[in-house]
Amino acid sequence: MAEIQLGVVESKFADMIWKNEPVSSTELVKMTAQKFNWARTTTHNVIRRLCDKGIFVNNKGIVSSLISRDDFYSMQSKQFVENSFSGSLPAFIAAFTKNKQLSEKEIEEIRALIDGITEE
User: Fold this and answer.
1) Which domain holds residue 96?
2) What's the structural domain count of the chain?
3) pLDDT in tens, 39-72
4) In this structure, how many other beta carbons lie within 10 angstroms of the beta carbon of residue 28?
């Protein structure tokens, strides 16, 4: 799948849709007016852009996802590691943990993930 870029506000709006889907565009207009102070046309334009990117579909005023939130952010994470660390997950983890001490619980969770991968 092609790389999909979202700005900060688009990401917050997408999260709003995922949290409430399926949701009517009318309800999204109300929510965005309250949360972002958007006009109706702004909301409809952003819905259209997100649909054009292949993340959501607007079927007769009902907006729902084509890609789940977890799948979308998984793709984003993979693309980030690919672009920033030449696809090297160990290089990413080394950079991520360089100035951050992992807790024992986090270390155990990472070990469990690795063990789950190696057992497959």
Assistant:
1) 88-120
2) 2
3) 999 999 999 999 999 999 999 999 999 999 999 9
4) 23
Residue 76 lies in a domain: no
How far is 53 from 112, CA to CA, in rounded Å?
35
**Does residue 42 lie within any of the structural domains?**
yes
Residue 81 domain-assigned (yes or no): no
Q: How far is CA 81 from CA 34, 88, 91, in A?
A: 35, 7, 9
Sheet of 23-24, strand order: 23-24, 62-65, 56-59
Question: What's the CA gap between 105 and 10, in Å, rounded?
Answer: 33
One-letter identity of residue 30: K
Three-class SS of residue 114? helix
The three-state secondary structure class of 63 is strand
Q: What is the pTM of this model?
A: 0.77
**Claim to verify: residue 97 and residue 64 sit in the same structural domain:** no
